[in-house]
């Protein structure tokens, strides 16, 4: 049943893309069909370099909920903040402001420049809260998928990135989807991006500390891009440190399904949206 629905949806997307719009991506079509009336979209640049910009999505209804900083994936080599409007649509629907930063990527930069960029985006948001968020930045949530989950997890576990930038807002929670938390640094794809990286600096599993905020880890059991073992190892490190952690391993779900299922038309792919909602309801009020 699920396979038939997915094939049908993909067929609709392909037809839409093929009608005189061959340069469109599936995310373009998906974002196009989602209503935008529930949020106000703002743009900001947090640095002087290409890709140092971010989109800010504000729910139209007044909310006291902390903003979610979402870091997209793309193997540290590709991606665009505009592609993930569907994530903002899902989360603003729950009442959360959403910040999606672009960041520099390989081969323009190497580790840790892209982590620095996301940290700089958080600092900028904190320095311009009235303009961007309309309220003080007292707390925030980190969320990411794939390589973006690795960056979000590093920011949550290695406090020096944000402390060095004077960020005083409290990290409320971490939601990480399908990330390589125990990064294989000698992998041919990884080595050029993390040249001679210290495992202590590059692996979130090495930097877990007691007192971290609650963590939700989601992963597809059929993920062939990033092994679910990364989530299992990260969860074990968090548990050993006494950090509250919830793990959801989804049978029949792959690397894309786990994030694509946040989009309203694709929620039959995986229960990611409902599990994130329940986690945030419990840990952010």
Automatic annotation (TrEMBL):
**What are the protein's GO molecular function terms?**
hydrolase activity
Q: In which domain of life is the source organism classified?
A: Bacteria
Under the heading InterPro entries, the entry gives:
AB_hydrolase_fold, BD-FAE-like_dom, GDXG_lipolytic_enzyme
Its transmembrane ranges are: none
Pfam short name (any one): BD-FAE
Q: Identify the keywords attached in UniProt to this record, alphabetized.
A: Hydrolase
Give start and end of each BD-FAE-like domain.
54-238
Q: Which PROSITE patterns match?
A: PROKAR_LIPOPROTEIN
- Name assigned to this protein: Alpha/beta hydrolase
Q: Name its species.
A: Thiothrix nivea (strain ATCC 35100 / DSM 5205 / JP2)
């Amino acid at each position: 049943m699920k396979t038939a629905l997915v094939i049908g949806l993909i067929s609709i997307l392909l037809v839409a893309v093929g009608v005189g719009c061959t340069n469109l991506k599936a995310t373009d079509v998906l974002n196009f069909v989602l209503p935008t009336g529930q949020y106000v979209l703002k743009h900001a640049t947090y640095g002087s370099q290409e890709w140092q910009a971010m989109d800010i999505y504000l729910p139209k209804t007044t909310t006291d909920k902390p903003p979610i900083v979402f870091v997209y994936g793309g193997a540290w080599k590709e991606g665009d903040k505009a592609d993930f409007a569907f994530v903002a649509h899902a989360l603003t629907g729950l009442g959360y402001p959403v910040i999606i930063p672009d960041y520099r990527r390989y081969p323009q930069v190497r580790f840790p420049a892209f982590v620095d960029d996301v940290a700089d985006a958080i600092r900028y948001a904190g320095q311009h809260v009235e303009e961007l968020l309309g309220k003080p930045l007292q707390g925030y949530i980190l969320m990411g998928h794939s390589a973006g989950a690795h960056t979000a997890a590093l920011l949550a576990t290695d406090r020096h990135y944000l402390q060095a930038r004077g960020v005083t807002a409290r990290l409320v929670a971490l939601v990480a989807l399908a990330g390589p938390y125990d990064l294989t640094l000698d992998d041919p794809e990884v080595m050029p991006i993390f040249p001679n990286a210290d495992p202590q600096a590059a692996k979130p599993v090495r930097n877990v500390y007691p007192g971290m905020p609650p963590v939700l880890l989601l992963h597809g059991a059929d993920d062939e891009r990033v092994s679910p073992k990364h989530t299992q190892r990260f969860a074990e490190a968090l548990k050993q440190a006494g950090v509250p952690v919830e793990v959801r391993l989804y049978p029949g779900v792959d690397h894309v399904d786990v994030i694509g299922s946040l989009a309203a038309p694709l929620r039959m792919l995986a229960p990611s949206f409902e599990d994130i909602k329940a986690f945030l309801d419990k840990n952010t009020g």
